């Protein structure tokens, strides 16, 4: 019908169709007013049956379809002017059918609302569908009143068909996606199981390799310690041998040096002795005495000078030692003073602790004595105890007197 050229209705037909459309709008408005909107917020009622809701929505949507069929039938089989009464009869029948369908839909909806409450989502959907049908019919009515056509109705039906087609396409894609997701999940589970098995095998292999590594480390450590100790022993033995050989060579060199020094000294002494003997044979006795005197004087001066140097060295060492001794004595006195002060402080602290302990013990004894005195003499808070003790003998005496009176009565 959309591809055909739209036929314009006559004013009389347009008025008749507008009356039908206005009646539909009134029926939809009444349906909107009688919808159980107050059921939305209640929690003590269950959801309406899905089949009944679908019937109600279907009946509402069929109104527009029937009207479209009526318009298409009229455009295809348009009667001539002499048959206006037949056309009015058909329109009246269609109007009665539409009103009956609307009443049945209202009855179904009211019965469903009485039996169970409509959920908020379903109620909003029904309200939206009713509002959509009302808007489409109102737009068609306005177009019919202005131009005498119903192109907006056809466009609305076409849009609804496209929406349903898109919706079905989306549902099909969603089902395909779910199937693919299920297959992927199954494949993922299989891969996960395979990877877990592989991971378990690898963990076992890692544990085995770790054990082997530990054994190899232990074996390598033992071998390295053995090789290290063996190398250290060999080095020590070699060093010992070298040190022994070196000490032997040093001893031999020292012996040779001592022997060489001794030979040189002997040679020098022999040479000096021979020279002196030669000079003695060539000099007179006076010269010999002068020579000896000069020798002894020179030796005296040298010995005196050497002894003086030793004496000066000893004096300087004594002065240094005396200064060090004085410094040490000063430090010793400071240390002794600090030690004595520390001992005095410790003794004072000890005496204070003993004094505090003694005072605490005395205070406790004094408090115990005073509490005992208060209890014995019933002083202070113990007066009530005295009264209770005085009341007890009175009660006992009265009890004894009552028993004695009872015995006498018997």
Word description of this protein:
This protein is mainly α. 88% of the residues lie in helices and 0% in strands. The protein has seven helices and no strands. It has helices at 11-34, 50-76, 84-115, 120-146, 151-282, 285-377, 383-409. Helix 1 (11-34) runs parallel beside helix 3 (84-115). The longest helix is centred in the middle third of the chain and has 132 residues, at 151-282. The chain is elongated and about 195 Å long. The model is unreliable at 1-5, 38-50 and 73-85 (pLDDT under 50).
Structural class: mainly alpha
Number of helices: 7
Q: List SSEs in N-to-C order.
A: HHHHHHH
Helix content: over 70%
Number of strands: 0
Taking the sheet with the most strands, its summary is: none
Report the end-to-end length measured between terminal Cα atoms.
129 Å
Model regions low in confidence, pLDDT < 50 over at least 5 residues: 1-5, 38-50, 73-85
Mean pLDDT: 76
Tell me the Rg in angstroms: 68 Å
Shape: elongated
What portion of residues belong to β-strands?
A: under 5%
């Amino acid at each position: 019908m959309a591809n055909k050229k739209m036929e314009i209705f006559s004013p009389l037909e347009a008025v008749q169709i507008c009356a039908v459309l206005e009646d539909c709008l009134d029926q939809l408005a009444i349906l909107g007013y009688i919808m159980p909107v107050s059921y939305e917020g209640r929690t003590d009622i269950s959801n309406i049956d899905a089949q009944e809701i679908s019937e109600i929505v279907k009946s509402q949507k069929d109104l527009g379809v029937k009207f479209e069929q009526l318009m298409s039938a009229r455009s295809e089989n348009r009667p001539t002017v002499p048959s206006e009464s037949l056309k009015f009869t058909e329109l009246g029948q269609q109007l009665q059918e539409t009103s009956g369908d609307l009443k049945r839909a209202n009855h179904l909806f009211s019965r469903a609302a009485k039996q169970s409450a409509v959920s908020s989502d379903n109620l909003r959907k029904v309200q939206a569908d009713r509002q959509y049908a009302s808007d489409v019919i109102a737009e068609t009515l306005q177009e019919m009143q202005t131009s005498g056509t119903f192109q907006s109705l056809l466009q609305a039906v076409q849009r609804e068909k496209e929406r349903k087609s898109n919706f079905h396409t989306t549902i099909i894609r969603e089902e395909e996606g779910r199937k693919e997701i299920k297959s992927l999940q199954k494949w993922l589970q299989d891969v996960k199981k395979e990877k877990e098995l592989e991971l378990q095998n690898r963990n076992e292999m890692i544990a085995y390799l770790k054990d082997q590594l530990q054994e190899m480390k232990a074996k390598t450590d033992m071998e390295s310690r053995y090789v290290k100790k063996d190398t250290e022993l060999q080095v020590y033995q070699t060093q010992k041998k070298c040190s022994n050989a070196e000490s032997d060579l040093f001893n031999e060199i020292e012996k040779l040096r001592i022997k060489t020094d001794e030979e040189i000294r002997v040679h020098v002494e022999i040479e000096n002795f021979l020279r002196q003997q030669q000079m003695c044979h060539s000099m007179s006795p006076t010269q010999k005495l002068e020579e000896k005197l000069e020798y002894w004087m020179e030796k005296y001066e040298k010995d005196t000078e050497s002894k003086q140097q030793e004496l000066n060295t000893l004096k300087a060492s004594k002065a240094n030692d005396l200064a060090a001794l004085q410094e040490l004595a000063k430090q010793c006195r400071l240390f002794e003073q600090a030690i004595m002060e520390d001992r005095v402080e410790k003794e004072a602290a000890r005496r204070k602790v003993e004094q505090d302990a003694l005072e605490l013990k005395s205070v406790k004894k004094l408090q115990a004595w005073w509490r005992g005195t208060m209890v014995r003499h019933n002083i202070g808070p113990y007066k009530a105890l005295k009264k209770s003790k005085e009341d007890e003998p009175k009660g006992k005496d009265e009890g004894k007197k009552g028993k004695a009176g009872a015995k006498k009565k018997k």
